[in-house]
Amino acid sequence: MSFFKYKLIKKDSRTKARVGVLSTPHGDIPTPIFMPVGTRATVKTLSNDELLELNTKIILGNTYHLHVRPGDELIKKAGGLHKFMNWHLPILTDSGGFQVFSLTEKRNITEEGVHFRSHLDGAKIFISPEKSIQIQQNLGSDIMMAFDECTPYPANYEYVKDSMERTLRWLERCKNAQTTDNQALFGIIQGGMYKDLRAISAKETVKFDLPGYAVGGLSVGEPPEVMKEMLDVCTDYMPVDKPRYNMGIGSPDYLFESVERGIDMCDCVLPTRIARNGSAFTKNGRINLKNAKYFDDFTPIDENCDCYACRNHTKAYIRHLVTNGEILGGRLLSIHNIRFLLKLMEDIRQSIIDDNFLEFKHEFYKNFGYIK
Known about the structure:
By secondary structure, the protein is of the alpha/beta class. Helix content is about 40%, strand content about 20%. It contains 15 helices and 16 strands. It has helices at about 50-55, 65-70, 70-75, 80-85, 95-100, 130-140, 155-175, 195-205, 225-235, 250-260, 270-275, 310, 315-325, 325-355, 355-370; strands spanning about 5-10, 20-25, 25-30, 35, 60, 90-95, 105-110, 115, 125, 145, 185-190, 210-215, 245, 265-270, 280, 285-290. The strands form 4 sheets. An 8-stranded parallel sheet has the order 4-14-13-12-11-10-6-5. Helix 7 packs parallel to helix 8 (about 195-205) and helix 10 (about 250-260) packs parallel to helix 14 (about 325-355). The longest helix has 27 residues, at about 325-355. The chain is globular, with a radius of gyration of 20 Å. The relative contact order is 0.13.
């Protein structure tokens, strides 16, 4: 695993926040970082050149969806996901484990693995820890995630305990199934909203001595304070010399709270999803361009933003596109929202280096409307 190395550059003196660099076969990733999600080998509506202009350093691909269509064997034949989509920077693939959570009505969990019904045509699909690793090795991602179960919220203690223990057994099978030496396998800490289960999962997961570790099963409907408590428990046990990833986190407040608790990497579909519904992040909070008040607003989405949309177009124009169902409207908002989160993480990174992370967080929260 000489291809993978995490270097800690600076730690905040008052929190767990930290700055580092994760080296991979396809380039270095400055952390903390936000990772845009390219579920089906594309970040929705955006080209690779646009992602690079936004200063994207790493993207995600979805193991389940790419296995279903076009098929991981086809992608392997193309030379792997990097060549298939012509993306030359790092790629992380999830394990298919989130679909265990999201496709509740179409799956059956056993010790051996999970039986799915395809969301496309109902065809039978089976993913085991070994199958997940095989698919991800075919995809050729830089970072592979271990196959796990993301438990729902709320869930009773015994169910979560059984699920967490099975996830640990699955992790061992994932590690044993890996045959590549140029892909990093990350373990996933589970345990629902129970502190003792989170602590057990964290301690047992790090025993596998993997290149990196993730916290899964958060931001699934639990109160924000509970999310922060669980994250604190997990990061207390995560090694300081390995990257830490909080899965499925993308709102500005959750990015701040994750970094404050020592997280290095976050991802979410949120910026492109809300863009398709006409919404945008700004320094003064989230706005919906469909609102009538933007009909004749000839200012950019955010005057402080350096993205293509803000440099070239007004709220009035983008509102016109969105309300008329023009694809360009969603594209421009996606460009802006992804850049907003990437720039936010760049600024968070700099604030840690400058020893004013908490001050920067407070100022952002006040402007964004998190502090009334």
